[in-house]
Amino acid sequence: MAEVPRMSPTTPRRGLRTRVAATSVRARILSVVVVLAALSLVAAGLTAHSLQMRIVDARISADLRASYSEFQHLATEGRDPATGDAFTSPRALVRATMQLKVPARNEGMIGFVDDKLAFTAAETTALRLEDDAELLAALTTPGRETQSHVRSLTTDRTTYTYLVIPVVLSASQETGAIIRAYDRNAELATLRRTYATFALVGLGSLLGVAAVGWILAGRLLRPVRELDKAARAIGDGTELARRIPVTSGDDLGRLTVTVNGMLDRLEEAFASQRQLLDDVGHELRTPVTIVRGHLELMDPDDPDDVRAARDVALAELARSSRLLDDLMVLATSSRPDFVTPEPVDLGRLTDDLHDTLRGLADRRWRVDARADAVVALDAQRVTQAVAQLAANAVRHTADGDEIALGSRLTTDDDGTTVAEVFVRDTGPGIPAEERARVLERFARGPGAHEHRDGAGLGLAIVQAIAHAHGGTLVVDDAPGGGALLTLRLPAPGAATHPTDPDTPGS
């Protein structure tokens, strides 16, 4: 017989968490707001109700004590209406008090003589104390009370707050008592009706809060819903260019700006990935075809033919290796850690570049200008970019032509300090209509057919390095002819101390 699986003790709790997690944020926010508002209304209502009940009880007690003071005044200063003399018997005093005192609403009064009910309130009095047997049973010997104080008694009919006033006169052997009582429940009935109205108004307010809260929560969470839609679309790969509209300047607005920035980087990453795959597929197809063709046509028995095929394969593999290195640089150029700016002495970097690059070819190398300043940049990436520019200048110049390096600090129209590192040559230059195209990947400038060692990625790499620094690459004509390519990199806070340019010979 198969064993019936037992339910884990954590199953209900897990199911509750699952249901809560499945509830929309809008519903959860609204639930919290409504619950808090309801708790606040209940707390305020109960507190106010308790205070009002205390006020009612205090008013009843004060009125009863005041009646005791009035009785004492009548007993000591008053006159018996029947004789005109001072009161000599408790019966007469009880009768006079019952006749002179008119009970308030929800108040009743009875009089005792020798612990027997002797007088009742006028017929117009609504609260008939004599009709409550439990109350009368509790008042067994009212005339023998020694002190008068407010008491409380609950019977089947109601709850009473009452005062026993003993009536004892030294000139008489009789004893008397006056009982004044309030129907506490009746006194509180008006208060209960008031708070029943308060409860209805509070319920209506909660419904209003729920309706308004639902609308406001929907508006406030609209960016989150847009974010969800955008994330789903991006996950499907259908709307990489979608952005969330920024509708406010609060936390959600700032979150929207942050997410839009993240989407920009994601779109760039996807575009870079596609571009890398397209570039690799396009550029590596040619060397693979060349190597395969030579290997298929090679005569394995002919040493010369084997050596020739080997040389072609090694040359194509070397070119493919350089191509892959360049493509990897471009693929990683959008990463935040592609450049690591540090304070660099721009003048010393210019001299170091001159000393390093002058060995590329037999040209007249010189330094046109040197910026004696400390600038925050990635010296390794800038060296890589300037080396590409210098190699490009070498390919488009002949022996004895001039190639100049330089650096300087300039200020844009908006007051931003910019560090410029440039390479100038006396070659044929780049026509104005070709300047935008030569910055694209695998684009070749005029005369590039004469140089087969490049893949057309050099200037694209230089531009990627400039963009990673927040700058740009500017292609222009050099004074006197030739090309002038300038890296313009933002340099806020750079200290400017210009010196005379050094012009070393070639």
TrEMBL record:
Organism superkingdom: Bacteria
CDD domains, per the entry: HAMP, HATPase, HisKA
HAMP domain mapped to chain residues: 218-271
UniProt-annotated location(s): Cell membrane
Transmembrane portions of the chain: 195-217
Domain Histidine kinase, chain residue ranges per copy: 279-493
InterPro entries reported for this sequence: HAMP_dom (IPR003660), HATPase_C_sf (IPR036890), HATPase_dom (IPR003594), His_kinase_dom (IPR005467), HisK_dim/P_dom (IPR003661), HisK_dim/P_sf (IPR036097), Sig_transdc_His_kin-like_C (IPR004358), TCS_sensor_his_kinase (IPR050428)
Catalytic activity: ATP + protein L-histidine = ADP + protein N-phospho-L-histidine
UniProt xrefs under Pfam families: HAMP (PF00672), HATPase_c (PF02518), HisKA (PF00512)
EC main group: transferase
EC number of the protein: 2.7.13.3
The entry's keywords: Kinase, Membrane, Phosphoprotein, Transferase, Transmembrane, Transmembrane helix, Two-component regulatory system
Major localization listed first in the record, in broad terms: membrane
Record protein name field: histidine kinase
The species this protein was found in: Flavimobilis rhizosphaerae
Source organism phylogeny: Bacteria, Bacillati, Actinomycetota, Actinomycetes, Micrococcales
